[in-house]
Specification:
The protein has a single domain, classed as Divalent-metal-dependent TIM barrel enzymes (TIM Barrel, Alpha-Beta Barrel). The radius of gyration is 21 Å and the shape is globular. The protein is an alpha/beta fold. Helices cover about 45% and strands about 10% of the residues. Helix 1 crosses helix 9. It binds 6-deoxy-beta-L-fructofuranose and manganese (II) ion (2 copies). One manganese (II) ion (MN) binds next to loops. This is L-rhamnose isomerase/sugar isomerase. Keywords: Cytoplasm, Isomerase, Manganese, Metal-binding, Rhamnose metabolism. One of its GO terms (biological process) is L-lyxose metabolic process.
């Protein structure tokens, strides 16, 4: 079976022309597990240097022009200056991530806490993040809550949902007209009996109650094993409520390894749903972000590899002959339809992507080009005393 009668190269060129991936500031700092953080030479000492490293990813891929920040990990005195620094480097500030998971006050919850004073503190932190958005030009406020329970009976499941709805409403009301709220879910951790936003359904219900500018974030590592993630993607797209991805790979859960490393076929299936809905186009406003840590591999190269992995999955999805697929589906041609998908998935798109990079004046192989640039050796020599990602950075 042939994949298509169309010009497949043109389909990939057009589809990828404006497709971008947002990179996280925390990917460039030292990281590890709760057992050990491995220090790497040359890691950034401040948010300015994180942006410099992120700009390298954009320089070699031509497809990573935004950088997410995490507050307070990336707190600086002058966010206008940080945004100007980003612009000088050819990138911009992307989503602003709040952080309510490292403060003693939030042991029993932040936006869901039974104590109104603690809820007010957590809301105030989000208002601070909104100020950062205004200073940096960011349009996306991203919330992931660590809130949850370890023991049945510890608190009322329903009351916590009511408190959450009220806190979110206050945050939503504080945002500007052109701001979006991105609400992330995760089925376990740091609490194990019940998380307050464990799944996409809970996130979606809160978004629907808030208003049009509230959308769901799908972190690919935040599901139980064998969850059909592309189904969730399709459902959220139907509702116009898929705001963003946090891409990473999981072997178990929330491993935060490089996207496309553990299960490239799953990434392809996700991207097939995206392309079917034309959600790879900027007009869809789905923000394709990475949420990863590179514990044992070099960080800038790990980020470049990840952007390439996402691009490869999108390119393969763009190879699917949608018209032929629709006909096979309507005709009940089970094997024909499945074959169209598998033909696209099994196509090696690396040559096409290399050609497209050359057309844009980039080098064919971004990782080889970065390795040859000497940047890694330079930062290792220049930067002494780099920080851990997040904690302490
Ligand atoms: C939580 C999470 C969330 C945080 C990030 C550091 O597990 O995925 O997105 O902001 O990790
Ligand atoms: Mn995440
Ligand atoms: Mn996570």
């Amino acid at each position: 079976m042939t994949t298509t009668a169309r010009d497949p190269i043109a389909a990939v060129r057009e589809g990828l022309a404006e497709f971008t991936v947002e990179v996280p500031s925390w990917a460039y700092g030292n990281s590890g597990t709760r057992f050990k953080v491995f220090a790497q030479p040359g890691v950034p000492r401040d948010p300015y240097e994180k942006l410099a490293d992120a700009a390298q990813v954009n320089a070699y891929t031509g497809a990573a022009p935004r950088v997410s920040l995490h507050i307070p990990w990336d707190l600086v005195d002058d966010f206008g200056k940080l945004a100007a620094h980003a612009a000088d480097l050819g990138v911009s500030i992307g989503a602003i991530n709040s952080n309510v998971f490292q403060d003693d006050a939030y042991m029993l919850g932040s936006l869901t806490n039974a104590d109104p004073a603690i809820r007010a503190k957590a809301v105030a932190h989000h208002v601070q993040c909104i100020e950062v958005m205004r200073a940096t030009g960011s349009k996306d406020l991203k919330l992931w809550l660590p809130d949850g329970l370890n023991y049945p009976g510890q608190d009322s499941l329903r009351d916590r949902q009511e408190r959450l709805a009220d806190s979110l409403q206050q945050i939503y009301a504080a945002m500007d007209e052109d701001h979006r709220l991105l609400l992330e879910y995760k089925f376990f951790e740091p609490y194990f009996y019940a998380m307050d936003i464990p799944d996409w359904g809970t996130s979606l219900l809160h978004c629907l109650a808030l208003g049009e500018r509230a959308t769901v974030v799908l972190d690919t590592g935040h599901h139980a094993p064998n969850t059909n993630i592309e189904f969730i993607v399709a459902q959220l797209l139907r509702q116009g409520r898929l705001g963003a991805f946090d891409f990473n790979s999981r072997f178990y859960a929330d491993d935060d390894l490089m996207v496309g490393a553990a299960d490239p076929f799953q990434l392809f299936r996700i991207m097939h749903e995206i392309v079917e809905a034309d959600a790879h186009l900027p007009s869809s406003r789905v923000n394709f972000m990475l949420d990863q840590c590179h514990n044992i591999e070099p960080k800038v190269q790990g980020q470049i590899r990840s952007v390439l992995n996402v691009q490869e999955a999108v390119a393969k999805a763009l190879l699917v002959d949608r018209e032929a697929l629709r006909q096979a589906q309507l005709a009940g041609d089970v094997l024909g339809a499945n074959g169209l998908l598998m033909d696209a998935y099994n196509t090696d798109v690396r040559g096409i992507l290399g050609d497209l990079r050359e057309e844009k004046g980039l080098q064919r192989d971004p990782i080889a080009a970065y390795r040859a640039s000497g940047y890694q050796e330079r930062i290792a020599a220049e930067r002494v005393g780099g920080h851990q990602a997040g904690w302490g950075a």
